[in-house]
Write a structure and sequence with these properties.
The complex is a heterotrimer of chains A (344), B (140) and C (350). Chain B has 140 residues and is mainly alpha-helical. Helix content of chain B is 33%, strand content 1%. Chain B contains 6 helices and 1 strand, in the order βαααααα. The longest helix of chain B has 13 residues, at 119-131. In chain B, 28% of the residues are buried. Chain C folds into 2 domains: 14-140, Glutathione S-transferase Yfyf (Class Pi), Chain A, domain 2 (Up-down Bundle); 146-329, 3-Layer(aba) Sandwich (Rossmann fold). The chains are: A alpha/beta (344), B mainly alpha (140), C alpha/beta (350). Chain A binds chain B through residues 202, 208, 220, 223-224, 227, 229-232, 252, 254-262, and chain B through 14-20, 31, 35-36, 38-42, 62, 65-66, 69, 71, 89-91, 95, 115.
């Protein structure tokens, strides 16, 4: 019988990936120290209104995060932001603001992501014009107060979405595709159209990346059932008119002509960037110089962070990924961490 | 004010499509008839296979895209959609008034459309909807 | 530390300047550059040197494919050589197109040092001179921006409508070559440069943010020089004027002399050819340059600084600010003799 109770695995992050890692590790019989900077589990799941592609409410997943459902062997350390890891004699030390807050035989980093700061794309006027919001802002509005989209008590007449804000963009030094923004834009366009059926909803895109299971079908539904217009062309600037509506310039590349459109709301589909509370690693190895996400030693098959021993990562801290991908990643990392300890 | 002066040049209004001014009538009617039309992704399969497109400037995708996007050019509200003034664009396509008379109704476009849009039926409906207003459009 | 372009400030030298003039500005706004020099020397106590041997930067020629780039670069190198010989390191450029050209050349030389060497060779062969790159290269409006609070402290007037007590609604128009090519060359970056809005706010006015604020006025030499093509250029000014019209601006200020000339001149052209007028109450909108704006708040006489040469009459604006002027001296020479009035100038005065 394996003396696995003596194995200690630390998991940093209680979002979908971190939770999957913590539960899987506990199932394997190890003792798990589970950290999160917030006082509650769930990470960004707490902020979402509906999850693509089938538009389930995140509460269905969050219900499994309750205390009573956690297996024995998991010790929660919530409200602690681990921001550095050091390795010393095959042990991993966890530090929060230079104070030691824990130690383990192996650690799984699952710190997730932040949304791109749309103020950096100043041409869209985010932070300047009230009617310009991000997809993250819209998700909050849809979840807590959808009538905030009304203008002076009237239903909004038109809403435009801009894809690829903070992604695929050399101007702000983020070259990668954030993968999930297109489907988010499609989902939110449908949600807005359902709330305000008479509104005209337009999505400005470069490519529609609807790669996941059910994604293309949702795209088609957006087009055919909800009559959402998709215009291939990137918005170059947004300005405000006297009615405080947003005037956009874009090109309809399919017609090869510039266009102008006035809308009540402009929603910027912001990409995923490495979290500002990303854990700093020993000797600073393991972070991709270009993207800032963690660099895996063997990205095709493993979860170990490059240049590190006993340090694994899971979920969106490795790069933009969806919830099912993050969950699978967390489970996989737990298995690997377990095998790592076991084989020592 | 007096006589308008000419200084030796024309002042243009530009090529910018003003999406704030839309003519929804034709597009809405056709959308009701051909629901799948809204699912077009402009892949270009239809034009790639179209025999008429090979011979000249006839571009079915551009034609129905312009209608679908409800774009008008130099719109004169006193005239119906199809009677609007013909506009020459840079690539010499007079949109959206390319006459559908080029269409052979062969149906090859419908065979290849990945979205399953009944494009031949769409072409016929466009012709029928505009038939009584335009000149020289063949009736079906 | 996240840095936003809105907060971006560039380095602007404090004193000891070498000034190079603008072809367009000194021809269309003949009082403006002298005014700028007077403001710097007399009001701000700065040392500004103007070399009688300096020339056009040949930007017009370069932008119309008449002067090859290498020739233009050699001419600019000569300007730097004159500056070096006179012992200066900080250059103030009067024209925004020049400023853009100098920025482009310095950038080219940075990335292609062998090109810079070649130009140094040309300059040596042609004139026997050598040059150094300026330590600081800014546009004239940047200097006024840097000293906007000092100017505000000694100003005799504020940009406020004396009749209503409200700040004047002022459109700021930034020349494209100021910051659109090299955002780091413009205070506030390329989307929302603050070099002029900073002046307006410091001197009591309010800025107008209208949809086509960032649009070009159309002054591209290549488009504009040939009469038959001029329509393209004027269409762009028209787009801007139509967009700003609902905001009822009292004034337009532009830092590029070409833009100022365009926005001033084409209001006349558009009225004559289309019958349209874009200012409040069916009147035209006066246009001034940055130094003229500074001159007005500092109390310089409007005719002494050349405002009579503007196509759109400025009297209405002067009345709003509360600046007194002698209407009889508008078209008088230095000795007070009338030199004749332009035709049609007083239609639709503001």
């Amino acid at each position: 019988m394996l003396d696995t109770e003596k194995y200690r695995i630390a998991v940093i992050g209680a979002g979908p990936a971190g939770r999957a890692a913590a539960l899987s590790a506990a199932t394997l019989g190890v003792s798990v120290d589970w950290y999160d900077k917030q006082d509650r589990a769930g990470g960004k799941l707490n902020e979402y209104h509906q999850l693509f592609p089938h538009r389930v409410k995140p509460e269905t997943l969050l219900s499994g995060f309750r205390e009573s459902e956690l297996p024995a062997g998991i010790k929660k350390h919530f409200g602690i932001a681990v921001n550095r890891i050091e390795t010393e004699q095959a042990q991993v030390i966890l530090l929060s603001d230079n104070k030691v807050v824990g130690g383990a035989d192996a650690v799984i980093v699952a710190t997730g992501f932040d949304f791109f700061d749309a103020r950096l794309k100043e041409e869209f006027g985010y932070g300047m014009y009230k009617q310009v919001i991000t997809s993250a802002d819209l998700e909050q509005i849809l979840k807590t107060n959808p009538s905030a989209l009304k203008k002076n008590g009237a239903d909004p007449a038109s809403i435009a979405f801009v894809h690829c804000v903070g992604s695929r963009d050399q101007q702000i030094g983020i070259g990668y595709c954030s993968r999930l923004c297109c489907i988010t834009g499609i989902k939110q366009a449908i949600e807005v159209k359902e709330l305000y059926p008479s509104a005209s909803v337009v999505n400005f895109y470069i490519d529609i990346r609807a790669f996941g299971t059910g994604y293309e079908e949702l795209y088609r539904e957006a087009q055919e059932k909800y009559r959402i217009r998709f215009i291939r062309g990137r918005v170059s600037e947004a300005s405000e008119n006297q009615q405080y509506n947003i005037v956009l310039k874009a090109e309809d590349t399919l017609m090869a002509r510039p266009l102008k459109l006035t809308v009540d709301w402009l929603v910027l589909l912001v990409g995923m960037v490495p979290s500002c509370t990303q854990v700093e690693l020993d000797n600073k190895k393991g972070v991709d110089g270009e993207t800032g996400f963690y660099d895996l030693a063997d990205p095709l098959t493993g979860s170990r962070i490059s240049g590190q021993e006993g340090v694994f990562s899971a979920g969106a801290c490795n790069g933009p990924m969806s919830i099912p991908e993050a969950i699978a990643s967390g489970r996989s990392a737990a298995m690997e961490a377990f095998n790592y300890i076991h084989s020592r | 004010m007096g006589l308008k002066k000419n200084f030796g040049f024309d002042i243009h209004s530009g090529r910018q499509i003003d999406l704030d001014r839309v003519d929804k009538a034709l597009a809405d009617e056709l959308s009701e008839l051909v629901g799948a039309w809204s699912a077009c992704i402009n892949c270009g399969s239809c034009v790639a296979t179209c025999p008429a497109a090979q011979n000249g400037m006839y571009n079915f995708r551009m034609l129905h895209y312009q209608i679908r996007m409800r774009v008008e050019t130099d719109y004169d509200p006193s005239l119906p959609y199809i009677m609007q003034r013909r506009v020459e664009t840079d690539n010499n396509l007079s949109l959206p008034y390319i006459s559908l008379e080029h269409c052979l109704l062969c149906g090859k476009c419908q065979l290849v459309c990945p979205r399953g849009i009944p494009t031949r039926y769409l072409a016929i409906q466009i012709m029928q909807k505009t038939r009584q207003h335009a000149e020289g459009i063949p009736s079906v | 530390m996240t840095k936003y372009w809105k907060e971006y400030q560039k380095e602007i030298a404090g004193d000891n300047y070498f000034y190079v003039r603008s072809c367009i500005r000194q021809n269309f706004f003949p009082g403006a550059e002298n005014l700028f020099l007077n403001i710097l020397r007399k009001d701000l106590g700065k040392k500004v040197f103007e070399d009688a041997d300096h020339t056009t930067c040949t930007g017009i020629g370069y932008h119309t494919d008449i002067v090859p780039l290498e020739t233009t670069m050699t001419v600019v190198a000569r300007q730097f050589a004159l500056m070096k010989e006179k012992g200066f390191q900080n250059i103030i450029v009067s024209c925004v197109t020049s400023f853009g050209l100098y920025s482009e050349i310095l950038d080219l030389w940075k990335h292609q040092p062998e090109l810079k060497k070649k130009i140094a060779g040309y300059l040596m062969d042609a004139t026997g001179r050598t040059f150094d790159e300026p330590a600081n290269m800014v546009h004239a409006s940047d200097i006024l921006y840097k000293y906007r609070h000092e100017i505000a402290a000694i100003a005799k007037h504020r940009l406020v409508n004396q009749r209503t007590g409200q700040p004047l609604r002022i459109v700021d128009h930034i020349g494209c070559h100021y910051a659109k090519t090299f955002p780091e060359r413009g205070v506030g970056g390329s989307e929302f440069p603050q070099v002029l809005s900073g002046l307006i706010t410091a001197w009591g006015g309010s800025t107008v943010d209208y949809p086509e604020r960032r649009h070009c006025c159309g002054f591209g030499f290549r488009n504009y020089l040939v009469q038959e093509n001029r329509g393209y250029s004027i269409s762009q000014s028209k787009i801007k004027l139509e967009s700003m019209q609902p905001y009822e601006p009292d004034l337009i200020v532009a830092n590029c002399p070409g833009c100022a000339m365009f926005l001033d001149r084409w209001q006349y052209t558009l009225e004559e050819s289309e019958g349209s007028v874009y200012g409040p109450s069916g009147l035209k909108i006066p246009v001034v340059t940055h130094e003229e704006l500074a001159g007005l708040v500092l109390g310089y006489d409007p005719w002494e600084i050349g405002l009579q040469t503007h196509q759109v009459p400025v009297e209405g604006l002067l009345d709003k600010i509360g600046i007194t002027y002698d209407a009889g001296r508008k078209y008088a020479d230095r000795n007070g003799n009338l030199i004749g009035e332009p035709e049609l100038i007083n239609q639709h005065v503001c």
